Amino acid sequence: MYGAFVPRTIHVARRPKEKCVTISNASPIGFVGTGSMGGAVAMRWLAGGQRLCILAGPRRSNTDALVQAGAREAGSAEEVGACDLVVTCLPSSEVVERVSRDVILPAVRPGSIHLDLTTGDPRVGMDLARAYEARGAHYVDGAILGAPEQAVAGELTIMLGAASELAERLRTPLAAVARRVLPMGPTGAAHRARLIMGFIGMATAAASAEALVAATHAGIALPTFAELLGETGMTSSTFQAMAAAAIDGDEARRKLSLGNAAENTRCLAALMEDLGVAAPVARATAQTFREAVAQGHADAFVPALTRLKRGTPA
Hints:
Layout: E1 29-32, H1 36-47, E2 52-55, H2 63-68, E3 72-73, H3 77-81, E4 85-88, H4 93-104, E5 113-116, H5 122-133, E6 138-145, H6 148-152, E7 156-161, H7 164-174, E8 178-185, H8 189-217, H9 222-230, H10 237-248, H11 258-275, H12 280-294, H13 304-310
Parallel strand pairs: 1-2, 1-4, 2-3, 4-5, 5-6, 7-8
Antiparallel strand pairs: 6-7
Helix pairs in contact: 8-10, 8-11, 8-12, 8-13, 9-10, 11-12
């Protein structure tokens, strides 16, 4: 029910009188974006008894499984948009902008909240915040730290970019899926923090892929290389996942697609520019993932980068 992003203007209406909406298990949470991470978050909410109204995407990722677990599939976009809390967990801010414009904003009610858990572009989030404010509603940028497996176990950390009173209203529903909910500051703060933190992981992944290919060409056995580096301060969980995938071929150890990595590092490079930070490493990292996507590998996981760099077929 939502597809490719088509740029259009978000029209701002006169702001209605604001009111406070209480978020509880009694009212359903609208959910858009039930892919790998979003599906895991949604499943955790259902396991805790939270009612969900989900909008199926073009691929219907996890939709049937969530419905079987107790979610209600929305019969219309307006049904989701009218929920007191709508959560999005989508591939990019461009898709979030389209979903906001076409699904949430036309039906949004004063006092309701759109919590965006997409790793997104802070600039888009700021524009959306103004559009929601004009309708007496709220946009909150959220950022997830953790993997889908941690979401299923309720062990995520979720950062929030919102005024303190909004963050407090979200603390109760988020307690079911996150062990920590951290207000990071005003709108945009969570997305900025997530991009900068993610930069370390993405740069490490790109550097690890090159190092693993170089080690192979140098005649160094990869198990020995990974073991020795693992005994030093230079190791990390990202390097170990990249090395293990290069050794045994299990590229699903990091379930972040190269397409998402390319989008995240694109947003990061733009953020660095906005902040006035010289960022040659960020630009090089973004270029690495952009090239992998241009070669047709958007759906492969990040650990596939080593295989692609050494020219080995899947």
